[in-house]
Amino acid sequence: MQDPLVIKTLISCRKLFH
């Protein structure tokens, strides 16, 4: 399960939570 949308959301969340 490697969806670009999920990855982008994860990155966004990580950037926001970092």
Task: Give me the secondary-structure topology.
Layout: H1 4-17
Tell me about this structure:
- It contains 1 helix and no strands.
- It has 18 residues and is mainly alpha-helical.
- The longest helix is centred in the middle third of the chain and has 14 residues, at 4-17.
Main sheet overview: none
Q: Count of DSSP E strands?
A: 0
Distance between the amino and carboxyl termini: 24 Å
Helix content class: over 70%
Tell me the overall shape: elongated
Mean pLDDT: 88
Low-confidence segments: none
**Assembly form of the protein:** single chain
CA-based gyration radius: 8 Å
| β-strand amount | under 5%
Q: What is the count of DSSP helices, taking H or I runs of 4+ residues?
A: 1
In short:
This protein is mainly alpha-helical.
Tags for this entry?
1 helix, mainly alpha, 18 residues
